[in-house]
Amino acid sequence: MATAAGTDIYTIMRNLRWSATEKSIARKAFEDALETELQSTVAEFKSRAGRAKHASELWEIEVWLAERRKEINEKYDYRYSVLPMVFGRLINEDRIQEDQLRGLRTDKLELIRRIAAF
Amino acid sequence: MATAAGTDIYTIMRNLRWSATEKSIARKAFEDALETELQSTVAEFKSRAGRAKHASELWEIEVWLAERRKEINEKYDYRYSVLPMVFGRLINEDRIQEDQLRGLRTDKLELIRRIAAF
User: Fold this and answer.
1) How far apart are the C-alpha atoms of B110 and B112, rounded to whole Å?
2) What is the rounded radius of gyration, in angstroms, for the C-alpha atoms of chain A?
3) Cβ(B33)–Cβ(B95) under 8 Å?
4) Is B45:B65 a contact under the CB 8 Å cutoff?
5) pLDDT at B111
6) pLDDT tens digits, A35-71
7) What are A8's strand-pairing partners?
8) What is the per-residue pLDDT for A115?
9) If you placed Cys at A95, which of A33, A80, B71, B101 could pair as Cys (CB 3.0 to 4.6 Å)?
10) What are the chain A neighbours of B65 within 8 Å (beta carbons)?
11) How far apart are CA A95 and CA A101, in angstroms?
12) What is each CA distance from A41 to A30, A37, A53, B57, B89, in whole angstroms?
């Protein structure tokens, strides 16, 4: 994704400065979304485990667990240099509401919105 | 493991000839032990899954499942060239009773017994 000025989004994200207040808002939104996603993964796991009757289903659950773990690890990357992209995705997936990010500077919110819509 | 005559056990196993009746006995004992082990794995999995509360426990179960799958795959190797060793181990682990192998020729039974005791 390139801006009108031709600066790529990674450079823009790297150049953002986060105040202590913004970091605190970001951290809370991030942790809340992660906790919710982990809990829903536990719930789905228990449902799958409850239905399993044969060992072949266990190996399917093993593959599913590995995929979930990998996806969650990749998605929840708390580095400020990529955080707008993380939040954009989480908003796009309806895991974070924009309200939770209220208090971030407009430049960040606009960037996050653009990524969410991308 | 070498015999008194110096012939190694892999050569001895490879040189065994299995009659149709012996193959049928072997197949049944093998499948019964495998089915029992798979069922007990399913039961233990359900118990672990039922106790799990946090995602970290899911990833522990994922590791456990991978180990169980690998161990079962390695243990239940139905090739006649290694079958006495497989049965020796299964008897040693109390997963097969010698009775289930009744009908195999004495040379095979003695070999299996020696491996079980090893």
Assistant:
1) 5
2) 17
3) yes
4) yes
5) 96
6) 999 999 999 999 999 999 999 999 999 999 999 999 9
7) A2
8) 95
9) A33
10) 58-59, 61-62, 65
11) 12
12) 16, 6, 20, 11, 38
Does the beta carbon of A35 lie under 8 angstroms from any beta carbon of chain B? no
Distance CA B116, CA B1 (A): 12
DSSP per residue over B81-100, as a string? TTHHHHHHHHHHTTSS-GGG
Q: Which of A39, A117, A29 is nearest to A78 (CA)?
A: A29
Residues B38, A55: C-beta atoms closer than 8 Å: yes
The number of residues making up chain A comes to: 118
Counting one residue from chain A and one from chain B, the pairs whose CB atoms sit within 8 A come to 57
pTM, 2 dp: 0.87
Quick one: tokens of B44? Answer: 């233990």
A75: chain B residues, CB-CB within 8 Å: none
Amino acid making up residue B115: I
Is A58 near chain B, with CB under 8 Å?
yes
CB-CB contact of B99 with A99 (8 Å) = no
List CB contacts of B69: < 8 A, sequence separation 6 or more.
A58, A59, A62
Q: Could you report the predicted ipTM of this complex, rounded to two decimals?
A: 0.86
Strand, helix or coil at B109?
A: helix
